[in-house]
């Protein structure tokens, strides 16, 4: 199929003529498309050779097709026909490779098309159902809490965001016992196990805002000393979500957003980046909680690291995921070796951030002073920088983004959170811009996905406005 024309095969004349006519067709400016314009029509469409390799259509390849120096393989014909004729069967029929349209086979093709449309509709319905379940999660949680007969819960919606944009990022949850017994976390998480495992619920004794200041934890009994309130958050901003159906990229398959510290906000940064790309989002923190529970902080990092490795090995296509941890060997942070289509975004905490937060990981905090802990992180940072350079020399796509403290120490917490969201969106945009600059996503598809953000959740819309205000959504696409 791909050899030069030693013997003329007249069947290919309609294909060559169609390419010639299409090249001469004027575009919106009256300029003939040419081979470059014809090749552009194949943007973001994958052609496979008979041995399974992917082929990128260039203007040189189009020119060879027109002249008959090269010809597509049989398995490529339906895709080419769909692009050129809006019908995947027309070109094979012109070449006499399949029966005429009037034959009975067309009924099978129509039935297949019908089933494809039904599957697409089912996918859209499932996406709406997932979105609805996420919106109704707080109602389910309140109802389940009341149904225990043991617990009461107060809900405080938290609206945060960069600048003037506000998003419903979480619901703060204060749980209390109503039966005069101690409020033990192990009891609460056992009574609400099913909902806690299925929702993005996190233990957050210091989360802002709260009904009152955080009481200290009694290390012996495991409950709060003063008011007996257990504080959690139902987090929406970094909750997992599926990919947009149209987000198929030829060169970009998956993205991991990693950091030594959760104070760099790898989960929210990864979720924002996933929204920009139209990818789905997952986090090793949410997966760890779902499969191993909220307790046992000494094992939490091991669980996250194991799940991070699993995501690398099984390569969730069209997904970004967030991960933090100090285990950096054997794919504990970066992949052991580069693999095609994956990008790693490394959020690197500054020394000032580490010093401000002291010992960030609870397991480290119990074993080291603040100075020892910071020195430990700095040593890990140096080792990671060395790993990164070695992997980049092998072709790995790694984006290194330093993350510093935001705002002066005198700022109250809500304004500081505003600055942290600004930093998070900025870091996500820096990663997104770097991915685009590396030619990993086609412009036409990515702009349509950005524009579609405006019709999604309040978090998507806030991100859309933030990008629009920076001139990153073209005026032709704005509502």
Strand and helix map with partners:
Blueprint: H1 13-24, H2 34-40, E1 47-48, E2 54-55, H3 59-67, H4 77-85, H5 90-94, H6 105-135, H7 137-148, E3 151-160, E4 167-177, H8 185-191, H9 193-198, E5 201-203, E6 230-235, E7 254-259, H10 266-277, E8 280-283, H11 284-292, H12 297-314, E9 319-324, E10 342-349, H13 351-357, H14 362-365, H15 370-393, E11 397-403, H16 413-437, H17 443-452, H18 458-469
Parallel strand pairs: 7-9, 7-10, 8-9, 10-11
Antiparallel strand pairs: 1-2, 3-4, 4-6, 5-6
Q: How many beta-strand runs?
A: 11
β-strand amount: 5-15%
So how many helices?
Answer: 18
First-residue to last-residue Cα separation: 47 Å
Tell me the strand order in the biggest sheet.
8-9-7-10-11
Low-confidence stretches: 1-7, 215-225
SSE series: HHEEHHHHHEEHHEEEHEHHEEHHHEHHH
**Approximate shape:** elongated
Radius of gyration: 27 Å
Helix content: 40-55%
Please tell me the overall pLDDT: 79
Secondary-structure content class: alpha/beta
Protein architecture, described:
The protein has 18 helices and 11 strands. It has 479 residues and is α/β, with parallel strands linked by helices. A 5-stranded parallel β-sheet has the order 8-9-7-10-11, sandwiched between helices. A 4-stranded antiparallel β-sheet has the order 3-4-6-5. Strand 1 and strand 2 (54-55) form a beta hairpin. The longest helix has 31 residues, at 105-135. The protein starts with 12 loop residues before the first helix and ends in a 10-residue tail after the last helix. 30% of the residues are buried. The model is unreliable at 1-7 and 215-225 (pLDDT under 50).
